[in-house]
From TrEMBL:
Residues 53-142 form the Dienelactone hydrolase domain. InterPro entries: AB_hydrolase_fold (IPR029058), Dienelactn_hydro (IPR002925). This is Alpha/beta-hydrolase superfamily protein. Keywords: Signal. Residues 1-19 form the signal peptide.
Length: 150
């Protein structure tokens, strides 16, 4: 299951989007996030609506971090130019073609033991960003990355 976090820079706005929201542990986490006063969105389209609402208040610099399935949401936002920076952690279901269309600065953090985003795939992402010097990036696979507990 995935978690997606959207942070609006220079403000206290935070939006969390949970893929697989029906999973009990993710629902508990989403409830805690909402109870703390943050926005919680369940899907990409919901997130786009929240971004529009925030931008209507004059906020123009928005960054996003996506974990697992949430990484796909961040990539889609970056492809559409809706965010100004992104971070992907254990990016699931993100393709080489997706990365080719990313327009925002991006950090990608993978794990050497990850079956959904293998080190080979992460290396392909690095190669794509190397050919796009106009898009700042940081791409790395780590020996261990916590992927359990959600």
């Amino acid at each position: 299951m995935g978690i997606f976090l959207l942070s609006c820079l220079l403000t206290s706005y935070r939006i969390y989007c949970f893929a697989g929201y029906e999973a009990p542990n993710l629902r508990k986490l989403a409830d805690k996030v909402a109870a703390a006063g943050f926005y919680v969105a369940k899907a990409f389209e919901d997130t786009k609506l929240v971004i529009s609402a925030i931008q209507s208040k004059g906020i123009s610099a928005i960054g996003a971090a996506g974990f697992c399935h949430g990484a796909k949401v961040v990539v889609e936002l970056a492809k559409d130019g809706l965010i100004q920076a992104g971070v992907l952690l254990h990016p699931s279901f993100v393709t080489v073609d997706d990365i080719k269309e990313v327009k925002a600065p991006m950090a990608i953090l993978g794990a050497e033991i990850d079956k959904l985003s293998s080190p080979e795939l992460v290396k392909q992402f690095m190669k794509i960003f190397s050919s796009k010097p106009e898009v700042p990036s940081f791409v790395k696979s780590f020996p261990v990355l916590l992927m359990r507990g959600l």
